[in-house]
Amino acid sequence: MTTDSKMAAGAPAHVEEGAKYAIDIKGFEAAGRSFPYAVYTRMSERGMAQLGGTASEPPRSFGTPSEMMKIVASICSKEPDYLLPGTPISEAVFRLLIANGNRPMSLMDVQSGLATAWASVIYLKNLSDDVVQRMLDSSNEYYIRRM
Fold this sequence. Notes:
- The protein is globular.
- The protein has helices at residues 3-8, 25-30, 35-40, 45-50, 65-74, 89-99, 107-117, 129-137; strands at 20-23, 105-106, 144-146.
- The protein starts with a helix and ends with a strand.
- Helix 7 (107-117) crosses helix 8 (129-137).
- It has eight helices and three strands; from the N terminus they run H-E-H-H-H-H-H-E-H-H-E.
- It has one domain.
- It is mainly alpha-helical.
């Protein structure tokens, strides 16, 4: 396969040094989706309780996304079921970015975060540069974008 045909297939020609990724919250909202609700639905019961809600009854107000992501970072992401091995990579990266306060992360940071979360898995998913970068650079429902 030539370099041209690799690029046509959507595979990155090389890993771009310095590229960082984050959730495009404005794009998320512009698409008619609620970013605070998306964060809330990924919170643990203990995290939801911090906002005065439960899984079946959300609070009247979520607060700011920044406040919610702090709760995810300090409580939810520490729980063993926050980032399960069976989680699709795009969902896992979304959760990783939320737990990181949506601060831009490099490809290496993303791979490291996923590998750490899934360290106990016998059959680790393919987290190669090409696979992860292709997912990060493609259009996705999580509005993960290069910043």
